[in-house]
């Protein structure tokens, strides 16, 4: 399906909220350009945006200076919001964008090219993260790792107790 | 002597009378002779000799009596001694028996008490060991169950501020890699 739609997502496009925001921006820009055309005015064209929409347009070879390009962008983003699988990841703290982009990169490279991430905060996670997909929940925290290796710690404590 | 001669009432004839007179005269003569022989001096001597003899007999008897008395006293002493000793020994034996019985009773009582105390101690020890074991097992179980949380909490409290997501990235990516197939399967199923 990803191959059919041929959408390229910039790494900065992370969450469904980002998609909605970009689509709204694309629609706003298309309306603005359409209004300029209707006025037949040679009004100032919007400056090329250096933001996420510009990245998206550049990645998908879209011209944001035209109404068609903006509409195409909005269409792609609508398709994307319908097609993209969404996962939810909870961290103990607000993740840095670099770290989040690396995680997102892994997902798009290994799981699905359109995947979008909702980031949540869960202080009880400690280290690691909780991952929730459509139907499953993955505990990728250090706590779960410690629980799995509880016997090692217990054995070590028992050894210490015996030595005393 | 004159008191012992009885006159025969049948001698009333002259022969008999003559004879009686003769006897009477003889008696009188004898009395005179006796008076002559047993004069006061002789009597006094006889009395003295009799007194001495009596004193000697009295003395001898007193000596015998003293000897008898001493012997009797000695025998009495021995008897008393032996009786008292025997009685005392019997009493002491009874006393010792009583003391022994009392001691035996006391020892048995103490042994019973000791046994009861020992049983109670063993019971208490067993209960305490059981309680301690249960408590220990409970604590170990709780600790074992909570150990991951404890260590996790400890790590977060001690170095939590120094670990940001960048430091955890390698771990998270490794965990994602480990769960890749499951994630992939669920994503494909859901889309």
Explain how this protein is built:
The complex is a heterodimer of chains A (164) and B (191). Helices cover 54% and strands 13% of the residues of chain A. Chain A has 7 helices and 4 strands. In chain A, strand 1, helix 5 and strand 2 form a beta-alpha-beta unit. The relative contact order of chain A is 0.14. The mean pLDDT of chain A is 80. Chain B is mainly α and 191 residues long. Chain B has helices spanning 14-37, 40-159, 165-178, 180-190. Chain B starts with 13 loop residues before the first helix and ends with a helix. Chains A and B meet through helix 5, strand 3, strand 4, helix 6 and helix 7 of A and helix 2, helix 3 and helix 4 of B.
Task: Provide keyphrases for this structure.
heterodimer; A: 164 residues; alpha+beta; 2 domains; four-stranded mixed sheet; 7 helices; 54% helix; rod-shaped; B: 191 residues; mainly alpha; 0% strand
Overall residue-averaged pLDDT value of chain A: 80
Structural class of chain A: alpha+beta
The gross shape of chain B turns out to be rod-shaped
Output the number of helix runs of chain A.
7
């Amino acid at each position: 399906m990803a191959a059919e739609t041929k959408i390229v997502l910039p790494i900065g496009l992370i969450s469904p909220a980002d998609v909605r925001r970009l689509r709204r921006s694309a629609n706003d820009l298309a309306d603005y350009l359409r209004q300029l055309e209707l006025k037949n005015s040679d009004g100032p064209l919007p400056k090329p945006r250096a933001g996420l929409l510009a990245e998206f347009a550049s990645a998908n070879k879209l011209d944001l200076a035209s109404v068609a390009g903006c509409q195409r962008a909005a269409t792609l983003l609508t398709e994307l919001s319908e097609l993209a699988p969404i996962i939810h990841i909870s961290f103990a703290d607000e993740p840095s964008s670099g770290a989040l982009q690396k995680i997102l990169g892994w997902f798009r490279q290994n799981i699905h090219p359109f995947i979008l991430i909702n980031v949540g905060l869960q202080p009880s996670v400690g280290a690691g993260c909780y991952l929730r997909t459509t139907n499953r929940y993955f505990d990728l925290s250090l706590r779960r790792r410690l629980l799995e290796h509880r016997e090692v710690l217990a054995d070590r404590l028992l050894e210490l107790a015996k030595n005393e | 002597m004159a008191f012992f001669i009885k006159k025969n009432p049948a001698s009333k004839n002259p022969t008999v009378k003559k004879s009686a007179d003769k006897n009477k005269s003889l008696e009188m003569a004898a009395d005179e002779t006796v008076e002559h022989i047993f004069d006061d001096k002789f009597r006094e001597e006889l009395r003295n000799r009799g007194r001495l003899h009596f004193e000697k007999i009295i003395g001898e008897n007193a000596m015998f009596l003293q000897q008898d008395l001493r012997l009797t006293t000695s025998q009495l002493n021995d008897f008393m001694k032996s009786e008292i000793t025997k009685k005392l020994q019997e009493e002491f034996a009874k006393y010792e028996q009583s003391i022994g019985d009392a001691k035996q009773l006391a020892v048995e009582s103490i042994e019973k008490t000791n046994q009861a105390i020992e049983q109670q101690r063993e019971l208490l020890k067993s209960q305490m060991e059981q309680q301690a074991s249960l408590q220990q097992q409970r604590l170990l179980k709780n600790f074992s169950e909570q150990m991951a949380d404890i260590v996790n909490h400890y790590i977060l409290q001690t170095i939590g501020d120094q670990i940001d997501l960048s430091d955890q990235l390698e771990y998270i990516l490794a965990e994602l890699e480990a769960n890749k197939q499951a994630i992939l399967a669920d994503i494909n199923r859901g889309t």
